[in-house]
Amino acid sequence: MSDYLIRVLSDKANVIGLACRTTELVETACRLHGTSPTASAALGRALTGGLLMGALAKPGLRVGLKFEGNGPLKKILVEADSEGTVRGFVGVPDIDVMVREDGKLNVSGALGTEGFLTVFKDVGLDEPYQGIVKLRTGEIAEDIASYFVESEQVPSAVGLGVFIETEGLVSAAGGFLIQALPPSEEQTIDRLIANIRRIGTVTDVIRDGKNPEDLIGMLFEGIPYVTLEKKGLSFRCGCNRDRIERVLISLGHKELTHMLEEHGEAEVGCEFCGAKYHFSREQLAGLIDDLESAPPQGGPQKLRG
Ligand code: ZN
């Protein structure tokens, strides 16, 4: 299990801690989407943040994050579930490499510092949102922390890191999330803050060969805790031909007939994973037949196969 997450609890202090390594799944996502280094860092941070938030969701439920900014990357969408799977994409994957004065990849320059983070809970992105906050820095971690503080009133600290080698390979990715639930001891909080300051960046910790257990150990130094859970993490998209057919059917009779007459076939791509679904003339005609024999609007849609 190379990518995994652990969850710990300090019950005396009412503090929960999550830490994860996501190097492989971030590399997989970046390869699928052909992201430039800065877009890879932004996508990797958002995927990792999504997994940390997904780990707080009830079993079987999902969390969606939509970052929209005024930078050239435009947006990042991520969906994660409580089982440790995540999928996501960025608006413009091939933006030019942007480097800050200190030589680090400029994620806030790519996403932008003006914009919004919308968090959807328990459901996919088509459902009503749970909370929306202004981007705080556009660096992802601070934006997620600010969502928890402003929208859920839960004091939270988030650290996310992705390291991209010069040839574009993701060689380290991971993060942590710490939440203090009331009533929490001031002394413990001070200690946590001091520990967070001391570890420096998550990227450095993971590049240093430290695993999530080590990271939690550093964050909770001097604070007793128990480990509640350890689970594997992966990039996985839930798209399939049935779902894509439903999307096509939802376009309606007129649009589908136009598609058939104009192009004679259709290719539909999944934004989250880049998978392509091809529909031949016969298959498109079949969908139109289904629409014609489907019950009137409001009734259940008939699906082929
Ligand atoms: Zn997909």
Key attributes of the depicted protein:
305 residues; alpha+beta; 6-stranded mixed sheet; 5-stranded antiparallel sheet; 13 strands; elongated; disordered C terminus; binds zinc ion
Subunit organisation of the chains: single chain
Give the cofactors and ligands: zinc ion
Largest sheet: 6 strands, mixed
Estimate percent helicity: 25-40%
Count of alpha and pi helical runs: 10
Low-confidence stretches: 298-305
For the termini, the CA-CA separation is: 37 Å
Alpha-carbon Rg, integer: 21 Å
Sequence of strands across the biggest β-sheet: 7-6-3-4-5-11
User: Globular, elongated, flat, extended or rod-shaped: what is the shape?
Assistant: elongated
Coarse structural class: alpha+beta
The residue-averaged pLDDT reads 90
Strand content: 25-35%
Number of β-strand runs: 13
Give helix and strand order, one letter per element, not per position: EEHHEEEHEEHEEHHHEEHHEEH
